[in-house]
Write a structure and sequence with these properties.
Blueprint (H helix, E strand, L loop, with lengths): L1 E5 L3 H12 L3 E6 L11 E3 L2 E3 L12 H9 L4 E4 L3 E6 L4 E9 L6 E3 L2 H27 L7 H7 L4 H16 L11 H11 L5 E4 L2 H9 L4 E4 L3 E7 L2 E6 L4 E4 L1 E4 L16 H7 L4 E9 L15 E5 L6 E6 L14 E4 L10 E10 L3 H14 L6 E3 L10 H16 L21
Parallel strand pairs: 1-2, 1-14, 2-10, 6-16, 14-20
Antiparallel strand pairs: 3-4, 5-9, 6-7, 7-8, 11-12, 12-13, 15-18, 15-19, 16-17, 17-18
Helix pairs in contact: 1-10, 2-10, 3-5
């Protein structure tokens, strides 16, 4: 069939690749001038900055890494470790640093202060969490929110709010106020698997290398937003801002659902619009910069992930030190990505600011997704929807690939990549 894919984020690109390899004629439409997936990539001092930076746990990003293996993209392991600092009015005090064991890649408390002041509390919290997760998965009622889980199990505060929740913010990149609304199950699965000793993996060449392979042999019409999608007899008419129009047998919309009423025919697709507009989204800024004030005051305490928070855990931010993850930035000026900064960043040191849309995942989302998948099964359906919002949302990239797999199943397209193991090559020398 002749199929249009609207949007070139991960969901759209994965859908296009799978359907193309199944023999369909695919055209991708993208409103941005380039490719949506790597549209925020920046070259800095001849080094690559992915925005956002992507590293993947082989358990949690299973389908994404299998797809990369299918496309022939090798990976390399990275050792993530963290530093946590208290924010005060006139100074920043680092209270915890961790490293990773060379054998097994397990997290280790690295600083004396962390062991002396908080070691027993962190160990206590870790044991409490392990017990609580075990009880949760033995219980019959697993349809609770993370906030309800927290209320049921009073886990040591410093461990939970100082170490666990920041990690969840990093992965979910959502507002701390809304993460309590998330279904607890996917988050607890994540926390349980996070303790496995496997190193995180990064794609060689970063996001652009993945995009290059995903769009290979596929026409992409970029730089013009879609203005109209209308059913005409047995086909779908797709029009964009430049006046281009074409007819397709099927259309896959892979954009945030808060944009669909800008181009879907409001009468023909009234039921779809009413359902999809119920999905909630929120925005946040990712600031790429060279201001080291987001890192621990002492250079020896710098870590891949730097978390800063106040004593009441009401203000928090996290920063990724890119030179410690991306080989092409080794030896270059230290460069960072800070998500939703609460501390002042020197405007002169900002490289770019990227506004990211994130789906809000809650119990309502689960019901909406179930209704959408049932609607997709209609025999006369010609338009379909996918995106990271159409799964449980964790991790975002994996949910996007999973949503593409749901579309592939409907079209009867083979998923030849499922189960492939990522090709892991020797890790390059990184800027630890």
């Amino acid at each position: 069939m002749k199929i249009a894919v609207i949007g070139s984020g991960m969901a759209g690109l994965a859908t296009a690749r799978i359907l193309k390899d199944a023999g369909h004629d695919i055209t991708i439409f993208e409103a941005l001038a380039g490719r949506g997936m790597d549209s925020h990539t920046v070259i800095f001092e001849d080094g690559l900055i992915d925005a956002p930076l992507r590293v993947m746990n082989p358990h949690l990003w299973k389908n994404t890494l299998s797809l990369a293996a299918y496309l022939g993209i090798p990976t390399f392991p990275v050792r993530t470790y963290m530093a946590c600092s208290w924010l005060f009015e006139n100074k920043t005090e680092t209270w915890l640093t961790t490293t990773r064991s060379r054998i097994g890649n397990f997290p280790i408390i690295n600083n004396r202060k962390g062991i002396k002041q908080y070691g027993w509390r962190l160990v206590k919290g870790m044991l409490q969490l392990k017990t609580a997760i075990h009880q949760f998965f033995k219980s019959k009622n697993q349809d609770i929110t993370l906030a309800e889980f927290m209320n049921q199990h009073h886990i040591e505060e410093v461990f939970w709010h100082g170490a666990v929740m920041p990690v969840l913010y990093t992965i979910c990149t959502c507002n701390p106020k809304t993460i309590g609304e998330w279904p607890a199950k996917p988050l607890l699965i994540f926390l349980r698997q996070l303790t496995d000793g496997d190193a995180l993996l990064r794609l060689q060449g970063g996001t652009p290398a993945l995009v290059d392979k995903l769009i290979q042999g596929i026409e992409i019409r970029s730089g013009s937003a879609i203005t109209q999608i209308t059913e005409k007899d047995d086909q779908i008419l797709v029009m964009n801002e430049t006046g281009e129009n074409d007819y397709f047998d099927r259309v896959v919309v892979a954009t945030p659902t808060n944009k669909i009423d800008e181009f879907l025919d409001p009468i023909q697709f009234a039921d779809d619009i009413a359902l999809l507009k119920q999905f909630r989204f929120e925005q946040g800024d990712l600031v790429i910069h060279t201001d080291p004030s987001v890192m621990p005051p002492q250079r020896k305490d710098w870590a891949v992930l730097s978390y800063m928070m106040d004593r009441q855990f009401t203000r928090q931010q996290f920063t990724v030190w890119l030179n410690s993850i991306e080989p092409s930035l080794v030896g270059k000026t230290p460069v960072f990505q800070t998500w939703r900064p609460v501390t002042d960043i020197d405007p002169k040191k900002i490289i770019s600011t990227v506004t990211l849309n994130r789906a809000v995942v809650d119990s309502k989302t689960v019901a909406l997704n179930k209704a959408l998948q049932e609607r997709h099964r209609s025999l006369d359906r010609k338009i379909f929807y996918c995106g990271s919002w159409s799964c449980d949302g964790l991790p975002i990239l994996e949910s996007a690939v999973t949503s593409a797999m749901h579309i592939a199943e409907i079209f009867g397209a083979p998923l030849d990549f499922v189960g492939l193991k990522p090709k892991v090559e020797v890790a390059p020398e990184l800027g630890y």
